[in-house]
Task: inverse folding
């Protein structure tokens, strides 16, 4: 709310101060001036409130908000004395107000010396030009200023161009990527050597990527990219302790493919990220993945080559690992929610209401999986239920919920819902639609009262966490700023003011307890996903988690939110950490968590087969 209000006020104040100059001395001018002063005061208040939410939200705003507040003070005083404010004050106010808009879209957090110099330097230059008589000196100032700004722009554009081939070992010595290469004392180990077990697999699957036209139950057709000609791909259901082998074959026309095990903490060589942990599998090629099914729970898989396009088009499926003991009488439905470009939304494989017979008294587990880029809201009507697990990790002491509670699944996230089948029907509703979803049992369609979202940070019973100190502390400030992406100016998604591949990796050593603060300065939510690890949520907006310990692989940082999470660096590799709104990842919001001493022989870029996002 405050972030949107601030954006609105900075634009309004900018417009008003600019309008005040030509109208000065008139009645309308006086009115505009009063409005400018009021807008500036309102913005100062909003900036102060934002500061209360955390320091990260204000430095760029203070750079222009403080001088503008002082200038409007001068304007107010002169107006009270019934005079027209002096021209230089009005011009300066108009300039600073416009600079405030520029700061909003260009600078963000952290504020660099260069950014402040550019803003105030060009202001000073403009003032000089205005004061100087026409002639050589004036031309010189204009030329120097324009030249400096142009040079900075061109340098940024050229610097953002991706090389034809970018490796992860030598890139950006200053950014710390160089440290991947290891040191004299610890020679590097390659991600290609950190593979799954070689013993005989107990479960084998083959997934063949191919293009197919899929007809949905409503009759709508989708030109999809599929695994085994179906969307979603086959559900891979294994038992804890299995050694799983999945052979990926690619029959797509001219498009590479990989398999990434979303939320499953496999060895890095099995993680399936094109250009980081393997080469994308070319058409006609194969790749064999192997991992041990150590953790039970609900997960999913998807291609991580051109993922923003590939997942959307259908290259995904679910992975379910059940405990070794055969759960007595549990009926279990895996319900991935997906949306195609056409807007068609499917739950499982269907865009229509599905019905299933379940006898009363049976224990039912719904495995809700969000494979879309946006959050989806699920409501369960007709029975009390519990959320027994999130992101494949059981919750401690989950309490009983009713239809009045809705579950907001972030992109990439999974919730397990458990209940005992009542005598009547149960309906699983997605995004408020009663026309589709899943209807279990017989009897009248249950009602769906208006509900509020479950706050997972206060759900269940707390338990002590494993961390008592932290070896590494990082802060990631998420934002949306104008940046060059591979040479092209774009309204990109940034981390600490930069975009992939320039975001410095989080360097960790094996065994480290790593704490990360994630701040969202933008106006869109960012479901952040760390590969290869689950993170324990410590706090949200400064409030510690009071419910069950939450071990997540995807946590949704809403606009203005500050999350603090921690993980144990116990899975050596080079891991992606990115927004799972995949178009955001494609537009910059990707970084690596890199273990010191781990190298990758794989590269990304135009001259390679690898374009992970
Ligand atoms: Cu499910 Cu890197 O993603
Ligand atoms: Cu995002």
Result:
């Amino acid at each position: 709310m405050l972030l949107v209000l601030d954006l609105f006020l900075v634009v309004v104040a900018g417009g008003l101060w600019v309008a005040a100059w030509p109208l000065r001395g008139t009645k309308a001018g006086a009115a505009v001036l009063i409005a400018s002063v009021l807008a500036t005061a309102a913005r100062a208040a909003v900036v102060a409130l934002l500061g209360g939410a955390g320091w990260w939200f204000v430095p760029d705003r203070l750079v222009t908000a403080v001088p503008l507040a002082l200038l409007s003070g001068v304007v107010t005083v002169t107006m009270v004395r019934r005079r027209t404010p002096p021209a230089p004050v009005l011009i300066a106010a108009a300039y600073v107000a416009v600079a405030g808009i520029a700061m909003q879209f260009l600078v963000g957090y952290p504020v660099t010396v260069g950014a402040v110099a550019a803003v105030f330097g060009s202001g000073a230059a403009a003032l000089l030009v205005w004061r100087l008589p026409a002639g050589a000196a004036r031309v010189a100032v204009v030329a120097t200023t324009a030249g400096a700004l142009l040079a900075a722009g061109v340098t940024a554009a050229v610097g953002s161009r991706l090389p034809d081939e970018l490796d992860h070992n030598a890139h950006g010595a200053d950014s710390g990527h160089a440290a991947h290469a290891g040191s004299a004392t610890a020679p590097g180990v390659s991600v290609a050597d950190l593979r799954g077990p070689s013993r005989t697999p107990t479960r084998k699957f083959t997934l063949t990527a191919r293009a197919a036209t899929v007809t949905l139950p409503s009759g709508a057709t989708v030109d999809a990219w599929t695994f085994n000609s179906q969307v979603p791909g086959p559900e891979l259901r294994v038992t804890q302790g299995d050694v799983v082998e999945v052979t990926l074959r690619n029959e797509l026309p001219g498009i590479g493919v990989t398999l990434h095990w979303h939320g499953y903490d496999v060895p890095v060589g099995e993680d399936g990220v094109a250009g980081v942990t393997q080469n994308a599998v070319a058409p006609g090629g194969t790749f064999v993945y192997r991992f041990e099914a150590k953790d039970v729970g609900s997960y999913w898989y998807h291609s991580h080559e051109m993922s923003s396009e590939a997942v959307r088009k259908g290259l995904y499926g679910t992975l379910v690992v059940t405990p070794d003991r055969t759960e007595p009488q549990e009926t279990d439905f895996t319900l991935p929610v997906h949306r195609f470009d056409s807007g068609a939304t499917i739950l499982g494989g269907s865009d229509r209401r599905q019905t299933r017979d379940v006898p009363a008294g049976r224990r039912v587990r719904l495995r809700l999986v969000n494979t879309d880029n946006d959050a989806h809201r699920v409501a369960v009507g007709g029975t009390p239920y519990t959320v027994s697990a999130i992101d494949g990790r059981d919750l401690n002491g989950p309490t009983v919920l009713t239809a009045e509670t809705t579950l907001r699944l972030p992109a990439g996230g999974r919730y397990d819902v458990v209940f005992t089948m009542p005598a009547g029907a149960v309906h699983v509703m997605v995004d408020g639609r009663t026309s589709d979803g899943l209807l279990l049992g017989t009897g009248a369609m249950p009602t769906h009262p208006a509900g509020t979202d479950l706050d997972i940070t206060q759900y269940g019973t707390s338990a002590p966490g494993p961390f008592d100190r932290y070896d590494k502390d990082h802060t990631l400030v998420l934002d949306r700023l104008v940046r060059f992406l591979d040479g092209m100016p774009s309204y990109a998604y940034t981390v600490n003011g930069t975009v992939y591949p320039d975001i410095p990796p989080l360097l960790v050593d094996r065994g480290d307890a790593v704490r990360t603060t994630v701040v969202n300065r933008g106006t869109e939510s960012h479901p952040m996903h760390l590969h290869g690890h689950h993170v324990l949520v410590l706090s949200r907006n400064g409030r510690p988690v009071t419910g069950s310990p939450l071990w997540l692989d995807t946590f949704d940082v809403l606009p203005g939110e500050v999350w603090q999470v921690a993980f144990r660096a116990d899975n050596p590799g080079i891991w992606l950490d990115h927004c799972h709104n995949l178009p955001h990842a494609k537009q910059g919001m990707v970084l690596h968590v890199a273990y010191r001493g781990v190298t990758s022989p794989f590269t990304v870029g135009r001259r390679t087969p690898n374009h992970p996002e």
